[in-house]
What does this fold into?
Amino acid sequence: MTEPGRRKPAELAGRVGTPGGRKLAGRMGTPLLEVRDLRVTFGGTGRRRRGDPPPTVAVDGVSFDVSPGQVVGLVGESGCGKSVTSLAIMGLLPHRGARVTGSAMFEGTDLLALSDAEMRDRRGRDLGMVFQDPLSALNPVVPIGVQVTEVLRRHRSMDARAARTEATELLRRVGIPDPGRRLTEYPHQLSGGMRQRALIAIALACRPRLLIADEPTTALDVTIQAQILALLAELVADTGTALIMITHDLGVVAGLCDEVNVLYGGRVVERARRHELFGTPRHPYTHGLLGSIPRLDAPSGERLAAIKGSVSDNLPWTSACAFAPRCPRELPDCRTVSPPAEEDLQRLLSCHNPVPVQVRS
Amino acid sequence: MSTQPKPTASEHRSERQRARSGASAEASNGRLQRRKDRLDRLAEAGGRASEGQSLLAEAFTRLRRNPVAVTGAGIIVVFLLVAVFAPLLAPHNAEDSFEALRASLRPDSIPGPMPGFPLGSDQNGRDELSRMILASQQTLLVGVLATLLGLAAGMAIGMLAGAFGGWVDTALMRLTDVLLSFPSLLLAISIAALAARASQTTVIIAVAIVSVPVFARLLRGAMLAQRSSDYVLAATALGIRRRNIVLRHMLPNAVGPVIVQSTLVLASSILDAAALSFLGLGDADPGRAEWGLMLANAQTYLDVRPELAFYPAVAIILVALGFTLLGEALREALDPKSRR
It folds into this structure.
């Protein structure tokens, strides 16, 4: 298949259509979205003055595919670039201050190359987004009904009456009881789970083909989390919408995602199908993440495994492995040579010294 | 045999228990019923409270319970009623000079209250009470028009600056900075003095211009704060047009402090307008009744009849106080932090 060997991320872009690339991208043929070598840099645009902080590379060459109906997870700790990746795909990063390179091919068009107006037409219609905190993502002084119908009227050119009927139907579909009354209410009158359901209804109003959920369950309590995840899974199955699930919660990944991208320092360090990733984590970071989940069946008194250090210890990817300072399996090479992304049928892995397959904690 | 008494005892006990519970059954039923009723009432109240009540409706409910707001609103309502029904309330024509009053008019004495003229005469032999009543029209009209004009212009500037940011913001804000850098009354005086002929319109425009930077700054700040809010990002992520984001999402969230400020500005507009006519920059028509002008005329006769200064001064203070009280209460009612 793909030649095992060192490949630069740039070469990865060329793997679209190779059997390996397709296989990893999903079961269903051509991908809906192909993100290639996405790079987002903050600062460093405009005139540089002395004393300016150096530009920060938030996303450093991320590539992944999403197929219709597939749920792809982007997992990583705070600051690994997962939210920035989603904002970049949606074109929501500020023009000033953020520099985005690479490509995000959505059905043959590069989203990153579209003009503002073209992008505005696609957002909400082809691309939907669910935000983390439903209370702040809903406008507090606008009734729920207006916020739902607004997007229907914008993209599906409905008149007020049709939009209202459709909005009632949408709220019912996401499991909001008495939707007719809820339409007249304001966000503060809804419970947290209800708000997130409303937000999902709004995001799905125009039946987008790609939905990006940025930590949709983080602001909710556990029982509601489960309901919302079940709802998302159901809607994805019903509508064939592709879902990019951004989360730091491996429980969410385990329950929902078909394929998982583990991000570290703005780069995908490991990618595999859910079962393979959880069964045999190869990258020391993935391994550490899975090891740091508290277990009920662990002997009492056993200390929780933690990954030492913090993101601030990162080395630049250009000449090292960013994770090296925190890695328990660090080799001398790790601090001098950037680990190549190696890809085979099951897995993409970017590590000099991966965890052997048989070891499983 | 020996076990025989036991069951009876237990039977007996249970019998007793049953009897007791039977006796208290009705009482507990009553309690239960009362509790149910209370729950029903609570549920009903809860249902009412959540019945699509907007933030403004909530604020209004809070306002009604606030004695400060009620006092302020009461004062304003009284003045408004007086102004609206002024021609009916005034016992005489305010511009007419009366022989009965003029007869006892001397350079060193102005006639006080007499039958038919409860507040006596002004310096020209006109009925002071009628003039006071008619003047409320002028004062409120000038105050309200000037505030509305300033509000419209200030909101337009603030909205553009806050919604677009960048160089639009910079240009508009430097403009308002220039206006802000003058003391407000001095600015109003200069603008009113620029006019070829002093009139009511020039007073309104001058007072309005003074309030423009206040509204503009306030709305701009609130709009800028909205720009980085999650729901604006969410609306952008839905592809909502920029105009709709500004008008439907940002403006309603930003307009609260501006509404509050407008009631406070109304108070200061009334004061400024009165000050302008006091300084002789108001309406040139000497017959027209206006509190500021009445105050100015009264200074000459302060030692003869100080009441002439007292009446318009109290009226100006009261109406300004009414608007200030209402404004403060409104600010409190709309402030999410002071909620309940």
Notes: Chain B has 13 helices and no strands.
